[in-house]
Amino acid sequence: MEFDRIINRRGTESIKWSKYGEDVLPMWVADMDFRSPEPVITALHQRVDHGVFGYGCPPDSLLEAIASHLSDRHDWDIDTCDIAFICGVVTGFTHAIYCFTQPGDRILIQTPAYPPFLVAPESTGRELVVNELIQDKNGKYEINFDDFDRKLASGVKLFILCNPQNPTGRVFTRQELTKMAELCLKYNVIICSDEIHADLVFSGSKHIPIASLSPEIAKKTVTYFAPSKTFNIAGLATSVYVAKCSEMQEILSTSMRMLLGHPNILGLHAALAAYQEGRPWLDAVMHYLEGNRDQMVRIVTQRMPGIKVSSPEATYLGWLDCRQLNLDVSPHQFFLEEAKVGLNDGSEFGAAGEGFVRLNFGCPRSVLEQGLNQMIAALEKRQ
Question: The whole model's pTM is what?
């Protein structure tokens, strides 16, 4: 498993590698620069060799593989009839907003937030309500439960949870999840849980699906995840949702048939191979990513004065606080122009992200170090 191998992705229709010019090192959008698991590649070759690509349907073996994965990795036992497919998690939670709320209803999110969370409510004619996460003295993000309670009580109909949290890398504890879930039950709020990074949790933390807490919570929750981040196959556009409530499942599936079409037949085959045979690759890549995370935190802490970073508990994304640099431009623009490193602009994650950048360390370690060294050089030149 050659995670140190540098693979040329320019000219491969990659969003990540085509946004900026060839003089810029892209370390932004959340896909990894690693070759996907060999069982996935083999399965795709075999399916392509068949030569017929009609409408697809998920095989029972895929449903069983997903249920087994959730049980083995997250201690969540579900029935295969609770599982359904959608082309993407963003499509999924937008679909849920349409299905379970009405125009003018209030949708709660926690910020800083994955940018589509910020636009989904208003783009569907709903109202965005924000519960801003707060940082402790070490920079770790925590939930402001007093504000969370007040916002739910204001008439919120649906809460979009992101756990593990993007961009902060928090993995919420059982206590935190239980308190959020109980408040949602109190105010009869549906939980739409984005758990796409659930498999990318580092040692010392444990992902707990919020729907696994109790049958009562499960009946008010739709959970979204995918093999896309886990096995680096986002371009195959195959995601999963789980709804334990038969009424919710029926509402989702009925409207989806009319609006969202069929699963991607190649994506289904890739997902099957990933969930059945990808565990060794996943374990290996997590070991490598943990090394990258530790290297990033060490270099930023020791060699980038004015920048703070809290070690992420999950994801392959670093959330860098650049507010003490007192730049004349946004840190995103500074590092793009002066370091030739393309990062995510923190302001895109809401007002709570102003002065931050998000850095993708899902890449060969030499590439990570190159990007960090270019950033260091730009900061030293500024002094």
Answer: 0.96
